[in-house]
Amino acid sequence: MERVALGRPSGTRDAVPAPESAARLLVVRTVAVAAVLATAGYLTWRLLATLPEGAALWLGVPFLALELYGGLALVLFVMTTWDVAPATVPAPRPGPPPSVTVLVATYNEHLDVLLPTVAACLAMEGEHETWVLDDGDRLEVEEMVTALGARYVTRAEHDHAKAGNLNHALALVRTDVVAVFDADHVPDPDFLTRTLPYFADDRLALVQTPQHFYNTSSFEHLRPGADLHEESLFYRVIQAGKHHAGAAFWCGTNAVLRTAALREIGGVATESLTEDFHTTMKLHRAGWRSAYHNEVLARGLAAGSPDAFYAQRRRWGRGAMQVLRHDNPLTATGLTSRQRLGYLYSLSAWFDSWRTLGLALVPVSVLVTGVFPVDAPPALFAVMAGVPFLLQQVALGLLSRGFAPARFSLLFEVVRLPSNLAATLSLVLRGTGRFAVTAKGRTGEERTRARVPALLLALAAVLVGSLLFTAASLAGWTPVEHGLGGTTLVPVFWVATTLGFVVAGIRRIRDPRFSAERRDGHRFPAALPAVVEGAPARLADVSLGGAQARVRGIGAAVGAEVELSVRVPDRAAHVVFRAVVRSRSGDVHRLQFVGRQWRELAALSATAFGAGAARWAAAEITPVAVEAPVAPGRRVPAASLHPDAVSAAVRSPFVAPAAARPPVDDDTRPIPRLTPELERALAGADGGGSGR
Prior knowledge:
The chain has helices at 22-49, 57-81, 111-122, 139-148, 161-170, 191-195, 232-244, 259-264, 275-285, 306-326, 337-348, 352-369, 378-399, 406-415, 417-425, 454-474, 486-510, 598-609, 645-650, 676-689, and strands spanning 7-9, 100-106, 129-134, 151-153, 177-182, 186-187, 204-208, 255-258, 289-292, 298-299, 524-525, 529-532, 535-542, 546-551, 561-566, 575-585, 588-593, 668-670. By secondary structure, the protein is of the alpha+beta class. It has a seven-stranded mixed sheet, sandwiched between helices. Strands 12-13-14-17-16-15 form a six-stranded antiparallel barrel. Helix 12 (352-369) packs across helix 17 (486-510). It is a multi-pass membrane protein.
């Protein structure tokens, strides 16, 4: 049987990490301690024996300050990642599980981005309601949400952005917990069954899971199709370490929160742009606990372009600076010492870019002025600095557990410079910035390359200029004397290496792969049998906007409206779409879906993301009367007409009980194969349920 290729990117390390062996832990921690001790010895030597005198002091002191900051960052990283063992689930308590309302917050995301999330939320296992909180007041969203069987919620005042949207819903929900998802994050069917057991702890307010991304060709990913992305280290290692310090925090999506805890602290924080981080700090200050479940249970859209990446990072950074102003973790009451250190590490990380910039400019200053910032022979300095540096790199590699390749991490240290520097400057400059939704899906009509930030261009020019100046000095054309000794070769090597990373960052930003996205939804590779206007066909790829298919025979003319029937493995009948042939090359037809085919698209989406397309053929939704009178002049969400819609979508005779996850051995989790046995079983289920 041919393997079905349609599936969701998942990677081989999505499951809860296996506990580390005692031998591995011993090696990791021994190297980490050795790196910290070697760094401390080096910094002591630098402080006591190498500070220059006279004119060189103006460069020597800032350089030493940068090294001291790096030493502190190393200690905080070691402390954070010392223990990343999986969280322990509390013993179950008698009684029913917590009641759940699933909240999907949206503002301006395209329907092709939002629909998979709503479909997957409705299809999650366990009793729950699904509400879509639309701050854009869009009629098409209401129509789509209602057709799928979720509840559509709007509000009269659109203040405080996402935080205000969630607080409005918080005043309406009557369940024990709320599961929160961004519009683009598609949960697995077992999301609730994996996270709700933690709430057996009566003082637990929050369970956070990793953010992971299915558009593996994004700007943030290591390379096209790779599972690692720029945030992998944080979500799979750092947050796991924060859990053991009691400092794991809400990251805005893929989380479950106790309603009573949120209400106790006055709702979601509105004082900063990072409402999730700030809310968690308030919860911790009030004595509530958090847990981090280190298993990928939802997948979203990473920032696809450099512009989206920079907008996202500026917003996060400005929000972090606002938290520093409002609730500095060093002075805020109610936090434990480990929580203070955990929050301090998270907030201080935004200032790392100043160290990166400083370390890039120190060797430039050496080459331009001829002044060396260390009063020691270059050979001795190279040995004293080199040994701790090598130990640091080995320790960082071990502590990152393989989620942060060195070259990739160094590259993004450079790439992040413009956004992080701008964000940290907001701590001292007037103005806090405004909330801006990260662009997802379509971001432009044309494939225009991203503009390189002026800071990176200026830094590249400075680095190149210092090398040219050094070459001129070696030729005797400048007043600065340079020889071929260590005081020249060390900074030249340093500048050349930094320039290599800056150029690599610029090339990445300008890469056509990361230009404006013209598609609304993500495109999945596919190898599914299909029928186009009665002719046998096979899909090559599919998105929620259309498909590409190879059609046997004459095919259809460009511009013609056709019927596309797709057979998906977990649905008894074909999924039938109306589509227009936008273009063709030989037998390859590029089709665009037309009309509002919400339930058909939901079936296709659920198949692509593994949620189960058969749930969307489970039952017809019968409208019922509205119980409460309608206030004059107020718009009534159409979803209020269908209170039975959620149960109709979730409880399905087609859906088998959840089974254990099979091991994954590549970058895609395929949907089940369509075997004759499965076809017969589905046909039987269809016959038994056709009267519903």
